[in-house]
Design a protein that fits this description.
Blueprint (H helix, E strand, L loop, with lengths): L2 E2 L2 E5 L3 E5 L1 H10 L29 H14 L7 H8 L7 H16 L4 E5 L6 E8 L10 E8 L2 E4 L1
Antiparallel strand pairs: 1-2, 2-3, 3-4, 5-6, 6-7
Helix pairs in contact: 2-3, 2-4
């Protein structure tokens, strides 16, 4: 198996590498973003901008298609999980500012096509876990957001 459902699998005796670079190119073409410049971060640091309800509403279908495409990418891209989770909170009534943030993620993906998950066979199988919390970080209702990730050896197994 090398390519299945948008997931590329590269196997060698030393490692297995999972990538979705071809899928990223497909969604870049789908949303007409092949000619955009690349970004070095997946999201701007000013998250309060996402709570802006003064900007105009946009086409809900386009926004939902873009976010759902990004959700599928989180299978091999834990680096975009937080931003996709944040943007998916606005699926009901997206605004122009949310679409701009989603396009920012797409521009980040353009510069990181070769990112993915690498599973090396030469590491010891030690289970490691990390958690983080954003206490009262929600702009709307001041609720907390938390996250965790677990790895077994060199392999990220849950996030």
């Amino acid at each position: 198996m090398h390519y299945f459902l948008g997931l590329e699998v590269w196997q060698s005796p030393e490692e297995i590498f999972l990538n979705q670079g071809k899928y990223v190119v497909e969604i870049m073409k789908r949303f007409d973003m092949m000619d955009c410049r690349s970004m070095s971060t997946s999201m701007e640091t000013n998250l309060k901008l996402l709570a802006n309800t003064s900007s105009e509403t946009i086409d809900v279908t386009l926004y939902r298609q873009m976010i759902c495409s990004l959700m599928y990418l989180t299978n091999t891209r834990p680096d975009i999980c937080f931003v996709v989770n944040t943007l998916s909170q606005f699926l009901v009534e997206p605004r122009r500012v949310h679409l701009v943030a989603a396009k920012h993620v797409m521009m980040y993906l353009k510069g990181t096509l070769d990112f993915g998950l690498s599973y090396n066979g030469d590491h010891d199988l030690r289970l490691s876990g990390y958690t983080d919390s954003d206490w009262a970080g929600s702009v709307f209702d001041r609720k907390s957001t938390s996250g965790c990730s677990f790895s077994l050896g060199s392999a990220m197994i849950s996030w």
